[in-house]
ROK family protein
Amino acid sequence: MTPRDALPSLGDGHPVVAIDVGGTTMKVTSVSADGTMSPPRRVPSPPPGPGSADEVVRIATALVHEEAERLGAPPAALGIALPGVVVEDQALGVYSENLEWRDVDFRAAFARTLDLPIAVAHDVRAAGAAETRLGAARGASTALVLAIGTGIATSVQVDGRLHVGRGYAGEIGHAVVVPGGEPCVCGNRGCLEATASAEAIRRRYERDTGTEVSGSKEVFARAAAGDPVAVAVRDSAFDALALGLSHAITLIVPDVVVLAGGLSEAGDALVVPLAQRLESLVRYGPVPRLVRATLGEDAGLVGAALAARDALAAQDDPQPSR
Ligand SMILES: [Zn+2]
């Protein structure tokens, strides 16, 4: 991991606790009244299965109590970012493939364990909100924050508003970019994620060469050294990313596209060839700036904290002017 600066300040407001629930790890931070975020702590996520949502609520509740001691004051809200399909305003976890829950009402679940307002966020949209308000896309009103890791998904912000699409907005990883191509976990073939995720790049290289590699980073290094199979896998991934992005760009005309997730650590080795492909694919409208995320793997956690602060601000001022 690239070393990163401390988490950004959220400014003055209520003290809150923020949690980001991942497939394997739950991260927690607390935000003091002056907006300082404490260094994140990590605990293991519960195993997948029918009890996983209750376990997440139990672990999160214990974390909130621990963070309250750290804060030295009771937090005014909990912001929690969840994976999978999430409808934020109903606090609904519709579906998580990693943790195997379906239709969980997290507000009702937390009401049984915690006497605190809850703001539910979606991990990718939370990261998108964090990057557009405090990170690489700061100030942009229309933006995509594309996370390329094990899977691929994007936040879709249009004219200052995050689009939710009943929980399914931004699942560009399952848009077909190579008809009849690589099989995908969703059952389709040729999905962007099956072609160009960090995991797909590793898997495709190993299949085509019979050689085990540590990950997409090693495939990029082999491509840079002239390995023709690595070059072919890498370039076809870039082609697929550019094609998928070009459609999203044509549709919403973002000011900026932020590249996040594990693959974005490749830096210019990803940004430059992708920008070149977009220049040649997007001829009719403006080509957005392409930049790397700045909040890194903590963007979802920062977004969860923003969601908690936003929920409290809406309570304080039910008709905000912004
Ligand atoms: Zn798919």
Notes: Residues 140-293 form a domain with the Nucleotidyltransferase; domain 5 fold (CATH 3.30.420.40). The chain has nine helices and 13 strands. The chain has two domains: 16-127+297-316, 140-293. The radius of gyration is 20 Å.
